[in-house]
Amino acid sequence: MFKKTIHKLLFFVLLVTTISACDIDPVIKEELPADNIRLVIPPGWPNPQYDFSTNPLTKDGFILGRKLFYDTKLSRDNTVSCGTCHQQFAAFANLDHATSHGIDGLFGTRNAPPLYNLLWHTNFMWDGGINHIEVQPLAPITNPVEMDESMNNVINKLQSDASYRLMFKNAFGDEMVNTQRVFLALTQFQGMLVSSNSKYDKYTRGQVALTVSETNGFNLFQQNCSSCHPAPLFTNLDYVNNGLDSTFADLGRATITQDPNDYGKFKVPSLRNVNVSRPYMHDGRFETLEQVLEHYNSGIKNSSTLSPLLSTGIPLTSQEKQDIISFLKTLTDNTFITDRRFADPF
């Protein structure tokens, strides 16, 4: 009887030990080598407008910024993050959503643009209403139909989180959490979102060849599209009325400038990664690239602020449209949209 009791006891101890070992997973520490968190200006590109001289780029600052980007604590009801409307697989656009979706199921009026190569921009948003990358996050955080939160509440939430206090200490030298540091960290993460390794980029480096259709499309693009979408950014960063409407429910750039000459003008988007960041235009009205090209072919609407470059449209045959789309697909940067450094840490 005594031996049976001992055997049962030993079996019970062994069982508990085994279950405990199965229940406790080892802590996996993510390794992001410091030399992978540095800004590399692609060959042949101009110098960025933002250079991190007053916001030194560090591994700890980047990791903090990434966590903030994906954290729903930045919204009033803790349900929406920056990453909600800016998804990596869509080049940090909001795939298949015509307009942004905020808290309480509310909809914005504009399409969430993709996020990359932001260091080369001096103005942000479709209307250029933000003129510095470090303060850009304030707009979506405080917008009542996006994240609808105050920075005071955001700071209180982060300050009460011990893991965040440690991350701020690692990034900035002490545990102080304030608005400036939140924005500096977000800038380090978003500033590192550089897309420059598409098939087109490899072609310019002599690493790959374009197909016949891609080459034809490239030539057509150069003739018809490059005035507004020049390489390497594939945007001239200007504001243009591209003939979407003859009257304007959304005044675009004029919302900021109050100048009638800016009615219906919106920031020219980059065409990098355009094949994975649908829908298109400031209000997401076009679902496909075919619809976009047909707009320029036959759908231009005249108004007093229409770009002179589009006064006669861009006549294209079916084959020419197909070739241009073949070229546009070469602008997809698969390295960028799968880079684990930029992935959701949660």
| C-alpha geometry | globular
What is the CATH architecture assignment of the largest domain? Orthogonal Bundle
Helix amount: 25-40%
CATH superfamily grouping of the largest domain: Cytochrome c-like domain
Strand content: under 5%
Protein architecture, described:
The protein is an all-alpha fold and 346 residues long. The protein has two domains: 40-195 and 336-342, Cytochrome c-like domain (Cytochrome Bc1 Complex, Chain D, domain 2, Orthogonal Bundle), CATH 1.10.760.10; 199-333, Cytochrome Bc1 Complex, Chain D, domain 2 (Orthogonal Bundle), CATH 1.10.760.10. 37% of the residues lie in helices and 1% in strands. It is built from 13 helices and two strands. The protein has helices spanning 2-23, 59-70, 82-85, 138-142, 151-159, 162-172, 179-191, 199-204, 212-224, 254-257, 289-299, 318-329, 334-338; strands at residues 239-240, 266-267. Helix 2 (59-70) packs antiparallel against helix 6 (162-172) and helix 2 (59-70) packs across helix 7. The longest helix is centred in the first third of the chain and has 22 residues, at 2-23. It is globular. The protein starts with a helix and ends in an 8-residue tail after the last helix. Mean pLDDT is 92; it is low at 1-29.
